[in-house]
Design brief:
215 residues, 41% helix, 7 helices, 4 strands, four-stranded antiparallel sheet, 19% strand, alpha+beta
Length: 215
Amino acid sequence: MTTTPRSPRLLLLSTALLAVAGAVLLSLPHSQEPPAPAPSPTVSATTDPSPAASRHPAGKTTVSTASSTTSAVSTPSVLESALPPHGEGAAGDRAIQRSLQAAWPADLPAADERELLTAGRALLRADATGIGRAAWPTVFPDAGQEVAPAFATARFRIQAAIARRDGSPNTAVVHLVWAGMDRGGTFTDLRITDWHFTRTTSKKGAPTWTPQPRT
């Protein structure tokens, strides 16, 4: 049997077709490769620099801690933060009175509170300026002696006062905030003084509040 020789041109064409087909096959997996998956919402939320994405559970923990800290603040600290600045003058006295009343709610009968406030103011004035000490011999045993007042009467001012129970129904305390100029000429305000009282019975059998000497 005789074999017909192939044409060189046909061989070249076949080689070229095989080369093209191989190139197509090699490039096919890349062209049909599925696109990379889009970032999940969790990842994008973590890297998002926007204010909404910056909220993190740690921020919630901080807020909770601040709330518990605020609720644990003692009453004196709250009162101090609510007081007007030094040097405010008589214009700030009303704010001081409101702060005292908010820090220590009323717990005495109105008549007892009025009696205690009147006595507390008089005692503070007598103690600071020397005026009226003779009315309280048990508190100021040296009232008959010549004592130079520690504060001038002209600049003395009671800024606020409240009377409250002091542990039992028969004991009370008067909290006073006041201002005055001392003998050296220095004026200061927001001074705090407490006067303690006990309930006693007068000679006529009526209950009354008796101040306790300062210790």
